[in-house]
Every structure is written in C-alpha cells, then in structure tokens.
Amino acid sequence: HCEERQRRGNAAMEREILYLKVPSFPVAVEQLRDASLRGRPVAICATGPGRTLLQAVSPEARREGLYKGMLRQEALRSCPGLRCLPPNPELYMRITKFIFGLLATYTPLVEPIQPGALFLDISGTRRLFGPARDLAWKVRKEIRERVGLELRLGLAANKLLSRIATRVSPASSLCDVFPGEERHFLEPLDVKVLPAVR
Predict the structure, then answer these.
(1) Is the dihedral of CA 118, 152, 149, 144 positive or negative?
(2) pLDDT digits (tens, 9 = 90+) for 93-132
(3) Alpha carbon separation from 125 to 60, 120, 131, 155 (Å, rounded)
(4) How far apart are the C-alpha atoms of 173 and 62, rounded to whole Å?
(5) CA 169 to chain centre
(6) Sign of CA dihedral 94, 44, 148, 107
(7) Residue 3: pLDDT above 80?
(8) Mean pLDDT for the chain?
(9) Contact 149, 22 (CB under 8 A)
(10) 3-state class of 42 per DSSP?
(11) In the predicted structure, residue 28 carries a pLDDT above the cut 90
C-alpha cells in the first residue's frame, strides 16, 4: 500500500508543459488579413535600400528554397513571384495578447516567449479539463475557431522537450513525449532540433 501511495503521489506531481507555436506567425497573420496571400510564396521583411533580411517565410516560400535570414535581394532573384510585406509588430503583438487571454482561462501559468509562441504549465489541471492531451486539442480547436490560426503543439515534462516536440511534429499536430520516454524520443533526433543550435 505504501508503494502504491508513493507511485500515485509521484504521478500527481508530474509536470505537464504544453508549448504552442504558430508556424511562420507573421506570415500566418498577414494571410488572415489578405486571403489572396494564401498558397503563394510570402515573406516578411523591412522595405527600403540596403541589405535587408527575411524575417519570416511562408511554407510555399520555403519550398522555393527561401529561409528566414536570407537576403531579400537574393530571395527575389531566386523566387521572382515572392511577395514581400513589411512587418507589423503591433498587429502581431495584439493577436498574441488575445491568444494569451484565451489560454489564461485554462491556467494562470502562461509564458509567451515570442509572438505566436507560448508555454502553458497545465500540471494539475486534469480534474478541471481532463487529460493533458485532450486539453491540448481543446486549446488548438478554440484558437483555430476564434482566431483562425493553425498550431503546432508539444507536450512534455519540461519546456525544452515540449519545444523540441513541436520542431519534429507535422504541421497542425500534437507531439506528446510521455514521462519516462524522453531518452527514446531524443536519441534518433539531429542535434539541430535543440533551440539556438545552428
């Protein structure tokens, strides 16, 4: 009985961290505003003379070989049909704050790390909202319906693992790293999935 009580106590203390990321968030927001941008190569970059870099690119632009940090002039030579848009940080922050407000109804422990990317500590919310995986799908559904944005979701026992999970999951999906399976999850992955590793 003591061992069973201890096992249940350990399970109750397990942390559950959900990481939500809108891929290419600035581009996704611009495509919400202008439906004609959907399905075509789009990049966010400053306008004007000089060496300007792409700040975000659409999936269609990535398929053309473009990437964040690429020179705008080089990108336009490589992809003449590229649509370059100036950044709108106020709009991006406003939408991020709205998403923050939605998520705060599930847990007070919401941590935005950049526009369109947030951590939620949903440890201990099972009795209110059910299993963490179900809550993750519920959050995704609400943001899709109320904001119109698609999410990548990563669920794990800590921030690092949940963030890595979104990097290896297909678009608009959930990658759940089960407690005790962290090593098996990480072993086959390239070191480049680690944040800040280039």
Answers:
(1) negative
(2) 899 889 888 888 888 898 888 888 899 898 888 888 888 8
(3) 38, 11, 8, 14
(4) 19
(5) 10
(6) negative
(7) no
(8) 85
(9) yes
(10) strand
(11) yes
Q: What are phi and psi of 120, to 5 degrees?
A: -125, 125
Residue identified by tokens 């090593």 is: 183
152-156, strands of its sheet edge to edge: 110-114, 117-121, 17-21, 152-156, 174-176
- What spatial distance separates the first Cα and last Cα of the chain, rounded to whole Å? 50
Assigned token pair, 111: 């941590």
Longest dimension (CA), the chain: 73
Q: Which residue has the tokens 């709108």?
A: 88
Q: What percent of the chain has pLDDT over 90?
A: 33
pLDDT in tens, 31-83: 988 989 998 999 999 877 778 899 999 999 999 999 999 999 999 999 999 99
Report the half-sphere exposure of 111 (CA within 13 A, side-chain side): 11
Q: How far, in Å, CA of 185 to CA of 151, rounded?
A: 21
pTM of the model: 0.79
Evaluate if residue 2 carries a pLDDT over 50.
no
Rounded CA-CA distance 100/94 in Å is 10
> Structure tokens of 130?
């059910």
